[in-house]
């Protein structure tokens, strides 16, 4: 905790010309004695800091010395350093920028920042999955630049059937979904989402983006993702599940599962989405101990058929 406090004191000094021990104590919710010790520790560590006594006295940085971290709290600074490590999922540009922030710290804090940068490894693979390298798509930087600058682009795009088209879009934001990247845009046909690995060309027009005043990228993406899920999993089955089986359903079906209220016999009503009746019946067949499917009838028929085949082979 102390290194967090010391960085916080340094950032506080950068925001103000002068601070007193009482102000530091109040800001960091510590005692004045602790605040004085922290200020002394900064000075002894080589931070260009001096104290003046009397009316208008306090602690100042020599010459208004700064790092480039003004406005960051200690926790925020350390969170940035955590994603700067060599094994993180940050892009090379982000890592380079964060390494510069690390080197902008005074010497006494640099070791802690570098330790934070090397303390985290992110491995997105599930156990048993092969190693797959996911590189950013070629036009990601160009589209991100268009979003930031707020300019329209002429977009070349290859759809899922291999047909190539060109259209002018208003880039609103970029979303990473697993290994895939998506561009959320407004078009003449309304809000559209484009997979960036299918983009074949990007030509900024220079014209400003038409950005809806109430647009929120996170909220818009959630609505888009929900709609895509519904299209991918159009079939919905109804069932009742023993209460102790709900946890297993959550693990197996994730957001494809909706849990309702309790039925008259104490079992829990659930809805589960799937691709088609046969595939979903195959997923549910091993859950007969906890789950009873009440509809639609074709899923029950497939379950009965699977059950008969299992009895014939293993009975």
TrEMBL record:
Domain HTH deoR-type: 2-67
Domain of life: Bacteria
Pfam families listed in its UniProt record: HTH_11 (PF08279), WYL (PF13280)
InterPro entries xref list: CBASS_pafABC_assoc_protein, DeoR_HTH, HTH_11, Tscrpt_reg_HTH_DeoR_CS, WH-like_DNA-bd_sf, WH_DNA-bd_sf, WYL_dom
SUPFAM superfamilies: Winged helix' DNA-binding domain
A molecular-function term among this protein's GO annotations: DNA-binding transcription factor activity
Keyword terms, alphabetized: DNA-binding, Transcription, Transcription regulation
Protein name: WYL domain-containing protein
Species the sequence originates in: Streptomyces liangshanensis
